[in-house]
């Protein structure tokens, strides 16, 4: 079957008990997509709750270190809850109510999607459970506290690598048990159809706004649009509106971790083969037998062994290109933006900045780069402070 | 041609009872013991063995099976080990059905996996995360090799899904009797009987019920309305926190209890 596929990627590799819920979700979201009432409600939330449209900011002092051209940031970090994740979650929470469900669950890596989901649940009166790998609950303790303050139950998952992948396993187990009254709000453009397409559609507003804004500011389209790619939702969100602009390079930046040769990274496109994980066929870090390999990144949000299927498609057809930034390059880019522009980015987004520094240097002073600054770095202060030796380790 | 699941289920039906189908993962608690355990199942009255292939991300498995497969993988279990297990089960006299998440088959190559499984005495595959909609390549590989293909139906399945899934099955239909992951449950639930009758309404294939059975009494209860009773987590759990020898003894005893359960099921 070809429904829900991007070329050979995507599909619906799930246990049969979930199929009716996926069919219901697909039906409800397709109806909602053309329902003026739903669209008006979502637009109202974007405007009066999230703070859309998010602004763009030109960053010349940063750009001086990135080849000397012009660099513009799309400020998803300024959204309510601090990242792009809220765009998707508000829409899925509205769908949850439309489906007559009273409970919403989610996985989270860095905690941004978990915080956004807990926020939407509080706003709309839904019960909420967030699954988070135990390792991530430790490195993102502040976000765990935020979710709990907002009324969500946070479950620390202690299986496997205790990161995002295992949180998704556990969320899927919850969903298959409680699917009658529970919606699983997947936080990125992965998972079984219709999630990759639906989540992209809920984020494409990023690119729609940014394209108009950069045309207003500069009078032309950017040479490249750059975004970090874990599952890949912020990247699909900003890429989508530019796909038909053939002269605009779409560049995804994966987590290079400690370097490709170390094996400790999440640069799927650098090493991986297509495979199936969490309901979708996509590039997947796996061993010879097809067992999932553990990924690694300084940023919890990019620490995932697979990637959204549409990215795999865009890569294979040559429309998007993917590179990676190591933990070290990322932390340098993080510090650079803080020091030159007074903007503290999320470590995920700092990968996009690191990629932009390279791309800017390749393209030189005539370049115009648009970067999706997908989240803010408050949550990463502990990691950053340890990295730069700014605090004494207490343990 | 070796005996397939359909013939075994037919024979059980002729005996006026449900079949007992036992699940154990390869490599737990270690490779040698796991194969001895599967043979123990057959020797103590298990009609079909569901040979589990350990996978890193078993999303429809509960805590007991997760613990077992994690241990199997940590112990170095490889996909190819499954074929040693199917040979042993076949030699012991029962058809082995391999239960596997799909990426392991995909990675090896669907045709290659099918050929190797057939050559190792395997009867077919149970595929918990492959639905017929995504199974075109497996449909043709199983046609070519004569392997059974067992997909799942669930209480949430609509009549349209029941028809679609059962049409794709060969051998039997796996009815996941309660919504949720695998694991022992104190009651097997009325939803199971309803699901079996809704499934029978759309297919003549045998309908085997899984998820939750752990005692002879439950096996009898389910066997009264199903063509096969699938037991997993309870069998796996016999190896927790004991020596392999003790585990095999406990396993043998539990298997006899379950076999006695299915034997009395229809008599009541």
Automatic annotation (TrEMBL), chain A:
Reaction(s) catalysed (UniProt annotation): (1S,2R)-1-C-(indol-3-yl)glycerol 3-phosphate + L-serine = D-glyceraldehyde 3-phosphate + L-tryptophan + H2O
Assigned EC number: 4.2.1.20
GO molecular function: tryptophan synthase activity
Alphabetical keyword list: Amino-acid biosynthesis, Aromatic amino acid biosynthesis, Lyase, Pyridoxal phosphate, Tryptophan biosynthesis
GO cellular component annotations of the record: cytoplasm
Lyase listed as a keyword: yes
Pfam families: PALP
Pathway assigned to this chain's UniProt record: Amino-acid biosynthesis; L-tryptophan biosynthesis; L-tryptophan from chorismate: step 5/5
The protein's required cofactors: pyridoxal 5'-phosphate
N6-(pyridoxal phosphate)lysine modification, residue list: 85
Span of domain Tryptophan synthase beta chain-like PALP: 52-375
HAMAP family referenced in this protein's UniProt entry, alphabetically: Trp_synth_beta (MF_00133)
Function: The beta subunit is responsible for the synthesis of L-tryptophan from indole and L-serine.
Subunit and partners: Tetramer of two alpha and two beta chains.
Family annotation (PANTHER family): TRYPTOPHAN SYNTHASE, TRYPTOPHAN SYNTHASE-RELATED
Family: Belongs to the TrpB family.
Name of the protein described by the UniProt record: Tryptophan synthase beta chain
GN (gene name): trpB
TrEMBL record, chain B:
Keywords assigned: Amino-acid biosynthesis, Aromatic amino acid biosynthesis, Lyase, Tryptophan biosynthesis
Any one Gene Ontology molecular-function term assigned to this protein's record: tryptophan synthase activity
Catalytic residues in the record: 50, 61
Gene3D superfamilies the UniProt entry points to: Aldolase class I
Pathway involvement of the protein, from the record: Amino-acid biosynthesis; L-tryptophan biosynthesis; L-tryptophan from chorismate: step 5/5
EC number: 4.2.1.20
InterPro entries: Aldolase_TIM, RibuloseP-bd_barrel, Trp_synthase_alpha_AS, Trp_synthase_suA
Pfam families: Trp_syntA
PROSITE patterns: TRP_SYNTHASE_ALPHA
Domain of life: Bacteria
Catalytic EC class: lyase
Catalysed reactions, semicolon-separated: (1S,2R)-1-C-(indol-3-yl)glycerol 3-phosphate + L-serine = D-glyceraldehyde 3-phosphate + L-tryptophan + H2O
Cellular component GO terms held in the UniProt record: cytosol
Known partners and oligomeric status: Tetramer of two alpha and two beta chains.
Role summary: The alpha subunit is responsible for the aldol cleavage of indoleglycerol phosphate to indole and glyceraldehyde 3-phosphate.
UniProt similarity note: Belongs to the TrpA family.
Protein name in the entry: Tryptophan synthase alpha chain
Organism: Nostocoides jenkinsii Ben 74
Gene: trpA
């Amino acid at each position: 079957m070809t429904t829900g596929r991007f070329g050979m990627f995507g599909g619906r590799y799930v246990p049969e008990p979930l199929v009716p819920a996926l069919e219901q979700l697909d039906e409800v979201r397709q109806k909602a997509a053309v329902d003026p009432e739903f669209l008006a409600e979502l637009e109202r939330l974007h405007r009066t709750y999230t703070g859309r449209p998010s602004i763009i900011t030109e960053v010349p002092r940063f750009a001086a270190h990135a080849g000397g051209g012009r660099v513009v940031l799309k400020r998803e970090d300024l959204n309510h809850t601090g990242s792009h994740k809220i765009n998707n979650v508000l829409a899925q929470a509205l769908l949850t109510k439309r489906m007559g469900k009273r409970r919403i669950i989610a996985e989270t890596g860095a905690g941004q999607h978990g915080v956004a989901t807990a926020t939407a649940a509080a706003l709309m009166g839904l019960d909420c459970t967030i699954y988070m790998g135990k390792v991530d609950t430790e490195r993102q303790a502040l976000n765990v506290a935020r979710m709990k303050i907002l009324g969500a139950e946070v479950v620390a998952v202690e299986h496997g690598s205790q990161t995002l992948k295992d949180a998704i396993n556990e969320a899927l187990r919850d969903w298959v048990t409680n699917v009658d009254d529970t919606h699983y709000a997947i936080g990125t453009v992965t998972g079984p159809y219709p999630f990759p397409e639906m989540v992209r559609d809920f984020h494409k507003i990023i690119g729609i706004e940014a394209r108009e804004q950069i045309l207003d500011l500069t009078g032309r389209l950017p040479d490249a649009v750059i975004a970090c790619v874990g599952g890949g939702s912020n990247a699909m969100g900003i890429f989508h509106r530019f796909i038909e602009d053939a002269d605009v390079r779409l560049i995804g930046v994966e987590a290079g971790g400690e370097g490709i040769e170390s094996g400790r990274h999440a640069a799927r496109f650098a090493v991986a083969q297509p495979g199936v994980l969490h309901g979708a066929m996509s590039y997947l870090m796996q061993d010879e037998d097809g067992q999932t390999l553990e990924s690694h990144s300084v940023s919890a949000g990019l620490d995932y062994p697979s990637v959204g299927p549409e990215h795999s498609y865009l890569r294979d057809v040559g429309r998007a290109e993917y590179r990676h930034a190591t933990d070290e390059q990322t932390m340098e880019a993080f510090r650079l933006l803080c020091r030159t522009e007074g903007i503290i980015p999320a470590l995920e987004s700092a990968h996009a900045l690191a990629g932009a520094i390279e791309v800017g240097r390749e393209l030189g002073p005539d370049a115009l780069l648009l970067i999706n600054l997908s989240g803010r770095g408050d949550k990463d202060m502990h990691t950053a402070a340890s990295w730069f030796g700014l605090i004494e380790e207490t343990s | 041609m070796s005996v397939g699941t359909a013939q075994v289920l037919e024979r059980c039906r002729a005996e006026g009872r449900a079949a007992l189908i036992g699940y154990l993962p390869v490599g737990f608690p270690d490779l040698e013991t796991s194969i001895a355990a599967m043979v123990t199942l057959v020797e103590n009255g298990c009609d079909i063995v569901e040979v589990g292939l350990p996978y890193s991300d078993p999303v429809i498995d509960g805590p007991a099976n997760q613990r077992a497969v994690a241990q199997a993988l940590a112990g170095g279990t490889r996909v190819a080990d499954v074929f040693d297990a199917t040979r042993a089960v076949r030699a012991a006299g029962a058809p082995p059905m391999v239960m596997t998440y799909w990426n392991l088959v995909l990675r090896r190559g669907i045709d290659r996996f099918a050929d190797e499984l057939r050559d190792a005495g395997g009867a077919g595959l149970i595929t918990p995360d492959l639905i017929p909609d995504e199974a075109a390549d497996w449909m043709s590989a199983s046609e070519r090799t004569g392997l059974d293909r067992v997909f799942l139906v669930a209480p949430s399945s609509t009549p349209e899904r029941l028809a679609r899934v059962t049409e794709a099955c060969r051998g039997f239909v796996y009815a996941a009797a309660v919504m949720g992951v695998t694991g022992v449950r104190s009651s097997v639930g009325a939803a199971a009987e309803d699901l079996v009758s809704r499934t029978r309404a759309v297919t003549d294939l045998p309908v085997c019920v899984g998820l939750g059975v752990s005692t002879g009494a439950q096996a009898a209860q389910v066997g009264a309305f199903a063509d096969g009773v699938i037991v997993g987590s309870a069998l796996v759990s016999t190896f927790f926190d004991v020596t392999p020898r003790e585990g095999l003894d406990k396993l043998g005893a539990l298997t006899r209890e379950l076999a006695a359960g299915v034997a009395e099921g229809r008599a009541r």
